[in-house]
Amino acid sequence: MTMQPRTALVTGANRGLGLETCRQLAARGFRVILTSRNDDGAGAARRLADGGLTVEHRRLEVTDPASIATLEAWLRNERVSIDVLVNNAGIALDGFNPEVARRTVDVNFFGALQVTDGLIARVPDGGNVVMVSSGVGEVAGLAPPLRERFLAPGLTRDELVRLVGAFVRDVESGRHREAGWPSSAYRVSKVGMNALVRVLARELGPRKIRVNAVCPGWVRTDMGGKGASRSVEEGAASIVWAAALEDGPTGGFFRDGQPIPW
Q1: Which of 59, 123, 216, 257 is the most interior residue, by most CB within 10 Å?
Q2: In CATH, which superfamily holds the domain spanning 7-92+110-136+194-250?
Q3: Dihedral, CA of residue 110, residue 113, residue 119 and residue 122, to nearest 10
Q4: What is the pLDDT of residues 30-49, one digit of tens each?
């Protein structure tokens, strides 16, 4: 009996870490669905496929519920299960103002939440969900009262959504410093993502779905810059480690396969 390859879906994968993650997963024998918000990803997927890897492209805008629903419908109609969901799509915008705060949180936090909620029915029991986070998402960058709220063992998804939303509202009202927030929307979005990992790990525990956050390190991508200390290949290897787990931890934060502080 021929074993079917496991399938991985990677968001924001038309370049950088996402693209290299697709390449490495496909090289391990996964069928990879490379998603991107525009058709740039189609060419990237075609180049990998031309190299003998099983990679195909689908469009996905992580902030658009209709786009997520369209992808879920295609997966369902094609009877495709996603053994691995990698939430890689993210932005880091210049400057700091209410619009930057709102856009960053919408993509990095709410995008990952919406995609996971929208596609989780296509993830079989025992699958993997990987959140591509960052070391700047460690709670040490928050004031102690906020730190305690994000780390609360019983934090619910509704409480987390309200907490992340409060950051945007506090920036809009000009009182974010007074409330204990840093002046970095990217940092807060990744703190929120890390907390989301712990919430989802509890929610999906009965289905044995592992949910983990990965920090790829400071990587030489368009976002990380040419002066970054790590190659794209090294950064993606951290993500692939969590994506390829067949048994192992859930609800953790890792770099190079090793746990790191929240």
Answers
A1: 216
A2: NAD(P)-binding Rossmann-like Domain (3.40.50.720)
A3: 170
A4: 999 999 999 989 999 999 99
